# Entry
Amino acid sequence: MQEKIYFYYTNDLHSNFSQWPRVTQFMKEQKAKREKANDSYWLFDISDHIDRVHPISEALLGKGNVSLLNDIGYDAVTIGNNEGITFSHNDFFHLYDNATFPVVCANLESLDNQLPEWLNPTIEYKTLQGVKIGVIGLTAPFNDYYELLGWHIADPYQTLEKLINKVKQSTDVIVLLSHLGISEDEEIARRFPEIDVIIGGHTHHLLRTGQEVNQTIITAAGKQCFFVGEVILTWDHEEKKLVNKEAYATDISNYDVDVDTEQKIQILLDESEKILDQTVVVTEKPIIVNWYEHTEIMQLLSNRIKQETNVDCGMFNTGLLLEGFPAGDITVGDIHRVCPHPINPCIVELSGAELLEVVRVSLTKEFMEFQLKGFGFRGKVIGKMVFSGLEVKTALQQNGREYVDEVLVQNAPVDTNRIYSVVTADAFTFGRLLPEVAKSERKTYILPNFIRDFLAETLKENYR
# Structure
């Protein structure tokens, strides 16, 4: 006798709630189909469901996301960096208090040894015909952030080495919910043939029909839930083993919507807007934002963060502010709309030579017009860099392009051999936009405050 086992999953919604009613409708239909056929099935979310770019996630501190997962009837979720490092320790500790599902993540540890009740390293299920399923969760080790918030993420490979034999002894099938990214998933499949299925996320990769590595099938459904994933396993009860593994990602971007979910999201949005409708400051004149020009608000914001962090200099890009503010009341919601990114300031150490290169690159047309996607940035373009504690003298080339002629720190030319402390947006500590910043050996992230928290203080100080 053979038995089909079904898993349905989502990953990396990033609070794209406009898509969630389609997810609900798809999941309802699949659940009804499986119930009618008397099949065993489970629903998983691979995290980054929350993104504080959206007012619902911002105002309700992720609790609205959890409520929507409850409504569908998810069986388990793991955590992602957007759940783990964009909330204070206390807010994250209580994030899933009202969840009707367990959270599974084997490598989340607390520096005070107090773990939330909702956390499980592994979970076990049993199919209707008795096949035992072991589920392990893992998340990416952004410990430069986590440890400032009172958490620690253990090495995923060491965690698996400790767990895998125990889980294998008590189960027939092992499923890994991995918020680690495609490269790590592939390496895990090579190192741990005991794992039958890896359902992934984090790097927003889309595997329409799955990928086989070693004896493992790897799957993921892109980002923002335009796709929903499905895994189908076939267990042979006579041979007592899996005889087939399939994985699919279904495009639901034009799927029907669940009306009840649409209404629920609107209720959550109305509630969130009321919470965010708190006046921070009243200004008599509009506050201008221009991505390609030096503006007063960006200079004041850069000055504020430099002063707060007590560094040699600061640099922040104008693209962090999506628009300006009209005259009148400026609310918490207005500040969130203008600066929605889950981005923190970060202090890095740069040599004078590296600092000069960063300044030079940041003022190029290509850099300013670059349409950055990811790394917490939720804007359009990077925009012009605004400096604090730095005086940048520029000149024009014959073709009319601006270039850096001289850079002064505290009225003295930059010493190429000296080490400077520089505060900037943490988005630049990842990737290749500013390699000198990304490769800095000393990084200090300023948590839990986002750039918009400093923006609120800047407005209160300067625009009353």
